[in-house]
Structure formats: structure tokens, C-alpha cells
UniProtKB/TrEMBL annotation:
Its cofactor is FAD. SUPFAM superfamilies: FAD-binding/transporter-associated domain-like, FAD-linked oxidases, C-terminal domain. PROSITE patterns: FAD_PCMH (PS51387). Residues 37-218 form the FAD-binding PCMH-type domain. Its EC number is 1.-.-.-. Transmembrane segments: none annotated. GO terms for molecular function: FAD binding; oxidoreductase activity. This is Uncharacterized FAD-linked oxidoreductase Rv2280. Pfam families: FAD-oxidase_C, FAD_binding_4. The keyword Methyltransferase does not apply. It comes from the Bacteria.
């Protein structure tokens, strides 16, 4: 491969300003969000639109250059980071940032892959519609990355994850062809569902350049409450009760252990623990109501009163204003920030069947303690869809980096074994990237791995699309 010839062709195609080769310019593209991986790239290439992206892919094919697609670079599994060889290029899709269409009557919005999630939400709101995907990184993550990792977030319980929110895609194939699948249809039974193959594939089967997304009616009111409970089993009982009484109005249901709440209060002293005494678990639940705020409040209060009468909930607070609702959500959203502020820790993004969440926690906590005595469990997440961030911190007074070095491998193996025993998955919403690709292969059957390899080979026979990700070498 003639690097100079390739880079010259890239500059002719994209313009000199959009072919970055100096480390001062490329550095932020080469390190993942958690700074777990630092790669090296021949160049960072920034196409302006889908047609230019397709031409760029053809150019990479002609020169045998492996491609690593990247959106907002907010991923947590190293899926958008190049390797250290210096032979790969990063294709940044951030310049593809147009909202192409909002069809309010069809409840759809078509956005390019580089659109920030927050901007898609705002475009929907401007049309008096709702795009419900909501993540902590929504001000910096992009729609292309959300779809490539099949992102989840806090509203999966009602609206589904990114896959369920997408009706159609525009994709540059590994052959450099542009597939226009931007159909705003709820029903289309005309063959294989190509859309679903690209969603969650982390750029290993093609480059998503645009998507047609589902919109919803804006709710008339959102009502939030925080409930105190004694155990995850009670939290599951509350979930069942809330689903029975509120049905599809139940939008969010977040579980947080007492230590999570203590950690947030320790790091962010302005965030006050809202109850008069500590409780083993807290649940943040939210209803979205299309009738009125009064109706939502009455329903939420009835759910909580019923739970208290049955001995499920020990105490509860219903937000009396938008500011108080935001404050309750801020407690939940500050948990990852509090973890980061206290140093490195062992993180797991896992999911088990909702019914198995209490059993998983009860079985796995003692296993972790036997391996790493005194470890502190930071357990929180989206109980409504079975997704837990099951994280392990060093004991008080122990150096976090030393703890991570000594215990990450055995603790992670034990947690993953327990997840597998409970019929779960080791990656719920963060993807596999390069961080979990080998571990995932360990828990998948040979049949499943063979099918995945067959897909990869059929779509990308040259192996140039985000190599080293999702599937082991």
C-alpha cells in the first residue's frame, strides 16, 4: 500500500482540511471514552455526506486500507478506536449532521448519522413530537453510534432500545455502494430485514449514514417518584405492581443500591439523600401521561400507596415540580460520575431476564466478596428491562488502580459466569467492541459464532470494516 498516494487521493476527495494526519489533530479520535484503548491511525477522514462516504470507502478498498467508523466517540467498549498498527483509518461521520426530514403525520424523522442525539430530540420537540431515546451522553453521542451499538437508555421499558426506534437506514456497504433503505414504514414484509443486521453490528458490516426514526406524541405530563425498599426482590414486586396499575404509562424504572446513593452524596455534597434514613435499595420510577399532570400524579400516588400497604415500599417521594423531578433524576445520572471521581473500578454492563435480577444479585455478590474481600458493590441500572450496571469498587482505603490490576480478570470472569448461568448477556447496551469480543465468543455456542462469521464474510469478504471488533480474530 502506497500511503502517500492514498492520502493524496483522500485530500482530492475530501479537501485537505478533512484529512487529519498530525497527532495534535487526531489525538481525540484515537482514544476511547474510558481511555482504556489508545490507537494509532494512518489518518482521520471526515466525509461531508453519504455520497462522499461511499466514494471514500471505495478508495479504501482500492488501497486495501481498513476502516474504523466513528461518531461521537462516546462508546464504552473500544468499538470506535483503531488498533496501534497505524495502518487503519478512522472515518469520522460527524459532518453528516443534517436533519433531512420531519414527517409529523407519519411520526418519523430522518437524520444523518452524525447528528447529536440531543439535536434529534430537539428537532422532534420543535414538531411537537417526542424522540424518546435518552442517554447521559446525549449531548455528545451521535445517532449513527447509537444505532451501531443498539443503545438503550432510561426509556427502554416503554419505547424500546435504538433498534425498536428505527424504521429504516441508509448504509454504505463494504463494497462502497450506497443502500437507500430509508423507508418510513411500520410494515414491510419484502424479504430479509437488512436494517436489523446493521443495527448493533458496530460498523463491522457497513457504515450507517442516515436513519429514519420513530417519533411519538409528546406526553402531556411526566411524573417522577423515588421509592425506598429493602431488597431487589421488593423492587421487582414494585415493578410488577406498577406495570399492572399503570400499564404502558410506566416509562422509567431505575434501581439503585444504598451504596450508590452514599457514593453520590460523598462526591457531590450538594445532592442530598432525600430520605430520613438509609434504605438498602431505591427505585426511581416515572410515568408519562397523555391526559394531564393531575391524572399522572393521582395514578403514581395510587401505585405507591398500594405498594406501601403491601409492605413492598418503605417510604416514597413524589416530585412536586419539574425542578424536583430533575433533582431525582440527577441522583441517578450522577452515579457513573461519582464512580469516575473515586478512581478506576471494575465495570459490567449485563442483562438477565427481569425475573432473575434479584436472584442474580443474591448469587453474585457473595462470589465477588470471596474473590475480592471488602469490595464495594455499585449496583444500579434499568430494572425494567433487566439491564444492570454491576460494578465493583475497591475496598475503602485500597488504591483503585492496584485493585483493578489484581482483581479485574477474576472478578469479571466470575460475574460473566453468573450472568451466563442466569441466561443473561455480558453486554446489554454498550456493545462488544474490542473490550468484550473474546469474552462474548466464550459464552456463545459454536453454531452462533459460525453464523456470525458467515454474515461477516458475506458482507465484508475483505475484512476491512472495523476489523478486530465484535468477532474474535
Amino acid at each position: 500500500m502506497n500511503h502517500a498516494e492514498f492520502l493524496t487521493a483522500c485530500r482530492d476527495l475530501l479537501g485537505r482540511d478533512h484529512v487529519l494526519t498530525e497527532r495534535a489533530d487526531t489525538g481525540t479520535y484515537l482514544t476511547d471514552q474510558r481511555k482504556r484503548y489508545v490507537g494509532n491511525a494512518l489518518a482521520v477522514l471526515r466525509p461531508a455526506d453519504a455520497v462522499q462516504t461511499a466514494a471514500l470507502v471505495r478508495l479504501c478498498i482500492a488501497h486495501g486500507v481498513p476502516m474504523v467508523p466513528q461518531g461521537g466517540n462516546t462508546g464504552l467498549a473500544g468499538g470506535a478506536t483503531p488498533d496501534t498498527s497505524g495502518h487503519q483509518v478512522v472515518i469520522s461521520l460527524r459532518r453528516l449532521d443534517r436533519i433531512r426530514q420531519v414527517d409529523a403525520d407519519n411520526l418519523t424523522l430522518t437524520a444523518e448519522a452524525g447528528c447529536l442525539l440531543a439535536n434529534v430530540q430537539a428537532a422532534a420537540a420543535a414538531a411537537e413530537r417526542l424522540f424518546p431515546l435518552s442517554l447521559a451522553a446525549e449531548g455528545s453521542c451521535t445517532i449513527g453510534g447509537n444505532l451501531a451499538t443498539n443503545a438503550g437508555g432510561t426509556a427502554v421499558l416503554r419505547y424500546g432500545n435504538a433498534r425498536e426506534l428505527c424504521l429504516g437506514l441508509e448504509v454504505v456497504t463494504p463494497q462502497g455502494e450506497l443502500w437507500d433503505g430509508l423507508r418510513g414504514l411500520r410494515k414491510d414484509n419484502t424479504g430479509y430485514d437488512l436494517r436489523d443486521l446493521f443495527i448493533g453490528a458496530e460498523g463491522t458490516l457497513g457504515l450507517i449514514t442516515a436513519a429514519t426514526l420513530k417519533l411519538f406524541a409528546q406526553p402531556a405530563a411526566r411524573m417522577t417518584a423515588l421509592a425506598a425498599l429493602d431488597s431487589p426482590a421488593e423492587a421487582l414486586a414494585l415493578l410488577n405492581l406498577a406495570q399492572r396499575m399503570a400499564g404502558p404509562l410506566l416509562t422509567g424504572f431505575e434501581l439503585m443500591s444504598d451504596f450508590c446513593m452514599q457514593l453520590v452524596a460523598q462526591v457531590f455534597t450538594s445532592l442530598r439523600y432525600p430520605f430520613s434514613q438509609p434504605y438498602a435499595q431505591s427505585v426511581l420510577l416515572e410515568l408519562s401521561d397523555n391526559e394531564s399532570e393531575a391524572h399522572a400524579r393521582d395514578l403514581l400516588e395510587r401505585v405507591l400507596n398500594a405498594a406501601i400497604e403491601r409492605g413492598i415500599v418503605r417510604d416514597a417521594i413524589v416530585a412536586s415540580s419539574l425542578a424536583q423531578s430533575n433533582a431525582l433524576w440527577h441522583l441517578r445520572e450522577s452515579i457513573p460520575l461519582a464512580q469516575s471521581a473515586t478512581g478506576l473500578n471494575i465495570k459490567h454492563d449485563i442483562a438477565v431476564p427481569v425475573s432473575q435480577v434479584p436472584a442474580f444479585i443474591a448469587a453474585t455478590d457473595p462470589i465477588v466478596q470471596r474473590i475480592a474481600p471488602g469490595a464495594r458493590m455499585v449496583t444500579f441500572g434499568h430494572l425494567g428491562d433487566g439491564n444492570l450496571h454491576y460494578n465493583v469498587m475497591a475496598p475503602d482505603g485500597v488504591d483503585p488502580a492496584a485493585f483493578l490490576k489484581q482483581y479485574q480478570t477474576p472478578v469479571t470472569a466470575a460475574v460473566h459466569d453468573s450472568v451466563h448461568a442466569h441466561r443473561g448477556t455480558i453486554s446489554a447496551e454498550h456493545g462488544l467492541g474490542q473490550f468484550k469480543r473474546d469474552a462474548s465468543a466464550h459464552y456463545k455456542s459454536p453454531v452462533e459464532i459460525a453464523l456470525m462469521r458467515a454474515l461477516k464474510s458475506a458482507f465484508d469478504p475483505l475484512g476491512l470494516m472495523n476489523p478486530g471488533k465484535v468477532l474474535p480474530d
